[in-house]
Amino acid sequence: MITVRQLLTASTIVSSLLAPVSFAQNAVVVNGKAIPKTQLDKLVKKSGQADNPQVRDQAREMLVTRELILQEADKREITKKEEIRDQIEQSRIGILVAAVFEDYIEKEGVAEADLKSAYESVKSQYSGKEYHVEHILVEKEADAQAIINQIKGGAKFEELAKTKSKDPGSATNGGDLGWMSDKALVPEFSKAMVTLKKGQMTDKPVKTQFGWHIIKVDDSRDATPPTMEEMKDQLKQMIMSDQNWQKAKFGEMMQKLRAKAKVE
Predict the structure, then answer these.
(1) Structural domains in the chain, sorted by start
(2) Are 194 and 182 in contact (CB under 8 A)?
């Protein structure tokens, strides 16, 4: 027969075993209200930062702040006020409208005609020539001129770019900017670049808003636009961000919904 002492002892053991498990499932407890660890995990993931103790501490503080405000709102009976309830409802509707529209766009996609129209407008930007260009960027004109003199004296452009250029994006590649359209660069740079022949370098430093440049053209060619298929994702993003397109598409969605609805 199990005695009261045995029953109490067994209950204590079970409680001591279960308590850590229950605690482990919570991120924090605020005034007796437990916030599940799953909420903390979700918040850390949404932050886009590496999961580490510091990020978790920051996320936990956000959860505590949020919970304290919610509890205080209940104490003050804020949510019982009509104007607050109306604002909450409007926010809820706004979120749902945006979510429904986003889902509609995702399922309906972008019309082929819209893609073709966008492609034609973008394709015209690839007219003219492209230049395979290198440059060295420095802060002072005298430094740029000294580098030009070094190159004319036999020093290699690429090696000087690696050690002297202040452009972090191209210095490690010997100053190589790749194939560029004159339309993609600042006017002062483009004006000097288009006058250079294959293998030629500027005789004098070129000043732009970024500093002083020594520019070298390795080659040039007629600009050829990528195919519509290659630009498809880019075109979709461009179309979907256009406000006029969004309005037209939203109107289209509503027309379809009303056509299927029974409105009395």
Answers:
(1) 15-75 (no CATH), 81-126+229-264 (no CATH), 128-222 (3.10.50.40)
(2) yes
